[in-house]
Design goal:
The protein has a 4-stranded mixed beta sheet with strand order 1-4-5-8, covered by helices on one side. By secondary structure, it is of the alpha+beta class.
Length: 409
């Protein structure tokens, strides 16, 4: 029985176009290391150059409207584009741009027309890379408890405070940042979002050297930083969504971060690991062993279910269907299945899979990196506990009214 899903003629034609374009436009020197902590400045620059080429096609942020530099692609073509990037070991964007990935669609919902025209095209063209600055030393899960202030002074907001756990290395052009604009205001009614140019005087970035993790396809955040603001004057026109309306803006940002639009990153390492287990060495393949085969099947099912949850959320959001707990459900699953898959890999192939030495470990360290990432991935973008809390609120556990999912388009 064949369960493979085949492209329609139109989908097939688009896939062929994307593949040909990528063959022609992917820079020759691009490295496909999974570990973003290994990304040199030179590699980062190569990836940025691919980003700009993708941007010219509207493919860097393919679902955003063409008028702001996106591709206006429908849900199916977007999936094909992500598939084809993954086929050559890259993510979309091909570098970490969390602030763009979540900030741009949020600005689309909450920004004025002038702000959409000012902020979105440079992000979509790949000219601007944006970090997201939310977490503070005393506010992570309880994001509404942040303390960084932005006080209006004439035509600027003066920002003071500290953000932590901010990915990644090689700097950012702008930071998409949640701040307190009314220190005496009621909780949830005292916050705002600012897009902050990172070259303003008074900003310093200090790496948190003991924390270096990532994400798949080289898009991950790698190195983490503290970002300090010392009397930074940010143009008032950079405040998005209205002063003290930031918690509402946050519901969009967080919905996207928690997976409400799906994350089309693939589980390439799973497929490569399966291939490795099928390979014969001295006449023997790991997959010959019935116990290993059973684990491999379970591992594959885990990866597929997570991928299908992501596809479902992608479809729900892009076709404007009603949504509730699905973002948090997918996120919780992705985190837990990542850990499950990582431990199965160790059980199946033994500790040698952790070696970067090709004589011992398969895939030159990808599996080692996957183990590390699976553990740390439980925490960012809301922990597994918080995903459970969100799901409970959305289905009305302990509440008179069910909490609504954030608006994503
Ligand atoms: C790899 C990595 C990358 C990150 N990247 C970024 C980034 O780029 N930008 C950024 O702004 N932040 C980033 N973060 C920060 C991340 O968003 C926070 O770490 C996360 O939101 C949790 O906050 P916290 O660390 O303060 O933990 P806390 O909120 O202090 O939580 C501690 C523990 O208590 C549990 N807990 C807290 N509240 C509840 C509750 N109500 N019910 C049940 N359990 C609860 C949590 O699940 C956790 O186990 C990153 C973090 C990591 C680890």
């Amino acid at each position: 029985m064949n369960f493979a899903i085949e492209d329609s003629p139109q989908q097939g034609a688009f896939r062929a176009d994307v593949r040909t374009w990528l063959e022609k436009n992917t820079p020759a020197g691009i490295a496909h290391s999974a570990d973003p902590c290994d990304m040199t400045l030179e590699q980062y620059r190569i990836r940025r150059s691919l980003g700009r080429r993708l941007g010219e096609m509207g493919w860097l942020y393919p679902t955003l409207p063409k008028q702001y530099g996106g591709g206006d692609l429908d849900a199916e073509k977007t999936v094909i584009l992500y598939d084809e990037m993954a086929r050559i070991g890259l993510s979309l964007p091909p570098y970490y741009d969390a602030g763009g990935r979540m900030g741009a669609p949020t600005i689309l919902v909450w920004g004025t027309e002038e702000q959409k025209n000012r902020f979105l095209p440079p992000i979509c063209r790949g000219e601007v890379r944006t970090w997201q600055l939310l977490t503070e030393p005393s506010a992570g899960s309880d994001l509404a408890g942040i303390k960084t202030t932005a006080i209006r002074d004439g035509d600027a907001y003066v920002v003071n405070g500290q953000k932590v756990f901010v990915g990644s290395s090689h700097g950012a052009d702008q930071s998409w940042t949640i701040v307190v604009t009314d220190p005496k205001g009621e909780r949830h009614k005292n916050l705002s979002w600012l897009m902050i140019p990172m070259d303003l005087p008074g900003i310093s970035v200090v790496p948190m050297d003991l924390l270096a993790t990532g994400g798949e396809g080289g898009s991950g955040s790698g190195v983490k930083n503290s970002v300090f603001f010392d009397n930074v004057r940010v143009p008032a026109q950079n405040l998005v969504g209205g002063e003290n309306n930031g918690w509402k803006v946050a519901t969009t940002h967080l919905e996207i971060e928690h997976g409400g639009m799906g994350r089309l990153a693939d589980r390439r390492v799973v497929y490569e690991f399966l291939e490795f287990c099928r390979e014969r060495h001295d006449g023997h393949a790991i997959a010959d062993d019935p116990d290993a085969r059973a684990e491999l099947v379970e591992m594959f099912i885990e990866a597929e279910i997570t991928r299908l949850f992501a596809l479902r959320n992608h479809w729900l959001s892009h076709t404007g269907q009603p949504r509730s707990y699905e973002g948090a459900q997918y996120s919780l699953r992705r985190k837990l299945s990542g850990l499950d898959i990582a431990s199965r890999m160790l059980r199946i192939a033994g500790p040698r899979v952790l070696s970067k030495d090709p004589r011992w470990g398969p895939l030159e360290g990808t599996v080692e990196y996957f183990q590390r990432d699976a553990i740390t991935a439980l925490h960012p973008g809301a922990t597994t506990d918080i995903q459970r809390v969100i799901m409970a609120r959305r289905i009305g556990v302990g509440r008179r009214e069910r909490e609504q999912a954030g608006t994503v388009r």
